[in-house]
Design brief:
The protein is of the alpha/beta class. It has two domains: 170 residues, Periplasmic binding protein-like II (D-Maltodextrin-Binding Protein, domain 2, 3-Layer(aba) Sandwich), CATH 3.40.190.10; 193 residues, no CATH class. Helices cover 29% and strands 17% of the residues. A six-stranded mixed sheet has the order 10-7-6-11-5-12, with helices on one face. Strands 2-1-3-13-4 form a five-stranded mixed sheet, with helices on both faces. The relative contact order is 0.20. The longest helix is centred in the last third of the chain and has 19 residues.
Length: 404
């Protein structure tokens, strides 16, 4: 029986290269691998499922699964995961010394519904008693000036949940071109360009109250069921940026995986202190402490297989899981190559062993069993924050037969 041709798309990670390069084989499949900037890939996934197998936003997938609208079926391969204590940047002149001090503050972020923000709001609620309604949310681009209407849909957004932007639809994205020799890359849009896009329109938030928000970023089709009523969400003014507003004191904090320029430039106040700093300066220690207490290593992106393929070839889910697991093992093995370093980091083995001391022998686990608590936590956060109508169960998220 000939191998079934499939296209696979994901971001550029060391843990996928063995599949892309043909070293880790997907049994029964002939793979064409495309490397795509993840935000751009998520937009494509929402418009048209161009690849049979794709990296996808895990929160968007769970929300779509809740509605019965998911075009993909997940396998427990988590290509992106991250702690996010490092992503909270605050003004040092606002008395924000701990997460509890964020209550009532104006917090800027590029998007409201992203997996990162779902995790961050859940963290603030679980660990510090800060609810989403305790913060005054301001949405807009981090660095590029905000505009009243943007031409592109969001990457990881509630458009997937059924929001209907009132502005014209963007042009169709170009089809995937054939990969260049040895690369398989597509997509020219940078992460900065993608993450700085927003669409500003009135929207409804918790409790049915009308607020000014971002249709493509915030809207929740289950607003009437939102457990957090009166969540204040507003767009920043046209021409403004989150980084600029934080530097000028128009915002008290910014939540962003990418540090704002005012932080990187070490902006100074007249008193000689940094005007902007991380809420957790030693975020590594804070993240270690969180993991030891909560036992959760946050999941961001999963891998999905087009539903029709899972139905026609149920064995394919297991083949893909095995191949991704093998590819990850090959990548991690590079950490121990000490005669000639495979990774450009002088103390790579010491770093690897220190990470194992916190996270365990497998520092980046795949599979359901090893990630069950993190999956359950994300499902709970999505329901508590009003993005799913019910709390989804772990065992209804993944392809049949690979739940072990």
């Amino acid at each position: 029986m000939p191998d079934i041709p499939i296209t696979v798309a994901s971001g550029e990670y060391d843990r996928i290269r063995a599949i892309r390069d043909g070293i880790a084989k997907v049994e029964g499949c002939a793979v064409t691998y495309h490397v795509v900037e993840p935000n751009q890939l998520f937009v494509r996934n929402l418009k048209a499922q161009e690849c049979e197998v794709s990296e996808m936003s895990f929160s968007t997938y769970i929300a779509l699964r809740d509605q019965g609208k998911a075009h993909y079926t997940a396998i427990p391969v988590f290509l992106s995961r991250a702690f996010r204590h490092s992503a909270i940047f605050v003004r040092t002149d606002r008395g924000i010394a701990s997460p509890a001090d964020l209550k009532g503050k104006r917090v800027g972020t590029p998007e409201y519904f992203t997996t990162m923000l779902v995790w961050m709001r859940g963290l603030l609620s679980d660990e510090y008693g800060i609810k989403p309604s305790d913060l005054r949310w301001r949405l807009g681009p981090l660095e590029g000036p905000a505009r009243s209407v943007q031409p592109s849909p969001p990457a990881d957004s509630a458009v997937a949940l059924g929001a209907r932007p009132s502005s014209p639809s963007p042009a169709e994205p170009p089809p995937y071109p054939p990969p260049q020799a040895g690369e398989g890359r597509v997509g020219a849009g940078s992460a900065t360009q993608q993450s700085d896009r927003s669409r500003q329109q009135p929207t409804s938030v918790g409790g049915g109250e009308k607020k000014t928000g971002l249709v493509a970023r915030d809207p929740n089709p289950f607003a009437g069921q939102h457990r957090e009523a009166n969540v204040e969400i507003e767009p920043i003014p046209a021409g403004k940026t989150l980084a600029g507003m934080l530097a000028e004191g128009e915002l008290d904090a910014v939540f962003s995986a990418r540090p704002p320029s005012c932080f990187l430039q070490a902006a100074r106040t007249a008193g000689g202190r940094d005007a902007v700093a991380r809420l957790f300066p030693d975020y590594r220690a804070a993240e270690h402490a969180y993991y030891r207490k909560a036992g959760v290593y946050p999941l961001m992106h999963a891998v999905g297989i087009r539903n029709s393929l899972v139905e026609q070839h149920p064995w394919m889910a297991g083949s893909l899981l095995d191949a991704f697991a093998r590819a990850k093992e090959i990548a991690v093995a590079d950490f121990g190559k000490l005669s000639a370093f495979a990774v450009t980091l002088p103390w790579i083995e010491a770093e690897y062993r220190a990470t194992q001391a916190v996270l365990g022998e497998d520092i980046w686990p795949y599979g359901v069993a090893a990630n069950r608590k993190a999956i359950e936590t994300l499902c709970r956060y999505l329901h508590e924050q009003g993005f799913t109508r019910r709390r989804m169960g772990v065992d209804e998220l993944f392809a049949p037969g690979i739940l072990a």
